[in-house]
Amino acid sequence: MSRLFTRSGPSDEGKKGRSKEEENNLEEIESESILSEYAIRQHAALSTSGSNRVDEIEITKEGTDPTATVIAKSFGEGDSSSSSSASSEEDDEEDVEYNASRRRAKKEEKKLLRTASICFCIFGLLTAGAVVTATVIVFLRNPGIIDTPTLVTPTPTRATLPPITESVTTIAASSSQWEQIGETLVGGLVEDHNSWSVAYSQDGTTFAIAPAAAVAAKNKNTRKKEDNVSRTTQMYRFSEPDQSWKPMGDPLSLIDDDELANRLEGWSVSLSENGDFVAIGAYSNNKYNIGIVRAYQWIERTNEWFPFGNDIGKDNNNYFNSVFDNTNQMSINLSSDASTLAIGAPNHDDATGMVKVYFWSKLQNDWSLTDSSSSSTSLVGRRVGDLFGHSVSLTDDGQYIAIGAPGGGNDGVGRVEVHRLETINDNGRWIQHGPDIEGINKGGGMGYAVQIAKEGKTLAASSGGTNTVGQVRVYSWAGFFWFPLGEEGITNENEDADGQDMFGASISLSSDGETIAIGSPGYDNNDNAVKTNNNSNVGRTVIYRWNGQQWVLPPKEGIITGKDGNELFGLRVNLSGDGSQIAVTGTNSTFYNGKDPSPFITRIYTFPTSR
């Protein structure tokens, strides 16, 4: 260990000019300094390395040799200490071994920490996934746990339905049954039940009928009043002071030419949320290929309807070259804010069907296709007989559309498609939102009626076409697919149903998607629910409510039945946005015989407050 205390002597330049005695003295001083420094270090090492205590350090020098030996005397419980050089060697070996073991321990510790971190991350991901899955399941089965904005509406005053619990209590008839408000509204004479249309605004204040009831008109030649067949549409608004429905302006005619107007055979009508905008569609049969849609805006100060944009459908003012050629049927839907208009033509192209969607362009001050480059091909049926567009429904903002194709799917089970509008660089295109929703029963025709609500998160579809028992299913959007609310859907609870009830011929959802009205116009009053002269085809409407786990039909407040045979009550049903009012349409049983044209009637009901 003497090498630890050896320092190189002075440089040759430093030795110049010094005597030998002066050099020896300098070397002694330097050696003493080195020894003192090392002694201090060794003292500190010995004092911390073991239990022995260093009491004395003796430094000896042998001659003028710059190296020396340090002798440390220690006293303690053990033996006397050995020489410092031997102790230093042992300490160095122990330090090397100790450091190596420390490094190994640190490596093991890091390895354990890494393993623990990985396990913790995996556990955290599994836990988070389980929580998310549980939350989705709870939401799907209980969509009401997320608050939805309550629709604040003007008059007429509406009551709130009582909360539904799993144990439904029957309320007294005087306070539980729906009550009619205002008079019965009568429409025009029609031959085909699919050829007329009604609409009810979400705020419950406005009602539209197309065609309207015929009015007496003067013959220009004889100046005598003659009854003619109506080709007009009439809107009504409820008067709270009078408790009656008052006409809003004069009846609207889409075509001024009487001869051309008489070729129109069917109508479709839709209202905005507040009833200040209306879209009216009319069409002829395949012989004339006429199809036209026009929107109107209500001007309160002049008490009249004013055209809102140009006509949709005619080509260069020629009604015979309509884009809805071979229509023979039409379904239209106006978004709540009247910014988007959807038009379905299910009989287009040999009943393949198509849907066109228009938006209101403030720049052009007119209607424009949402996707002028591909809209004509993006929303079309897939094969002949699909009847794509038989029913259409837009969300309030027009960003989602549900389309029924009751002739689609294998064996006529029918299907429903939902599309969302995607805008890229000011160009819109429709993208399918989730997979197809197909029916279950062969020939059931799912998609006969559809409605989408709750900002595109809730969807209802029915298979209640002619001569079918019918079924209604409600779905909730689960992020990647449509999840059914209720395992078996909503089926006809009429035990005497013979397959002719047409359950689901029309459906209507409330804005929050938790109340659904279902029309069953073929219902026979065999259980004598109401007193009628004829129990055949009385018709009824049932109102179900979602209680968080299943669809519940309250025993009294959930059923509205027609008043007589052949009323087919429930051919059209329309709920107000909050579900507290409903408009139900059927035929006038006095004139209906199944052969001749007959007028249709509508009664509007409200659910009274508990007394």
What does this 3D model show about the protein?
18% of the residues lie in helices and 31% in strands. It is α+β, with helices and mostly antiparallel strands. It has 4 domains: 2-81, no CATH class; 90-141; 142-300 and 514-605, no CATH class; 346-491, no CATH class. β35 and β36 form a beta hairpin. The longest helix has 58 residues, at 84-141. The model is unreliable at 1-16, 46-84, 138-176 and 216-228 (pLDDT under 50).
Overall radius of gyration: 45 Å
Give the total of domains: 4
Could you say which structural class the secondary elements and strand pairing correspond to?
alpha+beta
Number of DSSP strand runs: 37
Question: Globular, elongated, flat, extended or rod-shaped: what is the shape?
Answer: elongated
Task: Return residue spans where pLDDT drops below 50 for at least 5 consecutive residues.
Answer: 1-16, 46-84, 138-176, 216-228
Estimate percent helicity. 10-25%
Major sheet: 5 strands, antiparallel
**What share of residues are in beta strands?**
25-35%
CA-to-CA gap between the ends? 109 Å
Q: Average pLDDT across residues?
A: 75
Count of alpha and pi helical runs: 7
Helix and strand topology:
Layout lengths: L11 H4 L4 H30 L3 E8 L8 E7 L8 H58 L31 H4 L2 E2 L4 E6 L6 E4 L5 E5 L5 E3 L6 E3 L4 E8 L4 E4 L4 E2 L4 H4 L4 E6 L5 E7 L7 E9 L4 E4 L23 E4 L5 E6 L2 H4 L2 E8 L4 E4 L5 H4 L12 E4 L5 E6 L9 E10 L2 E6 L4 E2 L10 E5 L4 E5 L8 E7 L4 E3 L5 E2 L14 E4 L5 E6 L19 E7 L4 E2 L6 E3 L10 E4 L5 E7 L10 E9 L5
Antiparallel strand pairs: 1-2, 3-37, 4-37, 5-6, 6-9, 7-8, 9-10, 9-11, 12-13, 13-14, 14-15, 16-17, 17-18, 18-19, 20-21, 21-22, 22-23, 22-24, 25-26, 26-27, 27-28, 27-29, 30-31, 31-32, 32-33, 32-34, 35-36, 36-37
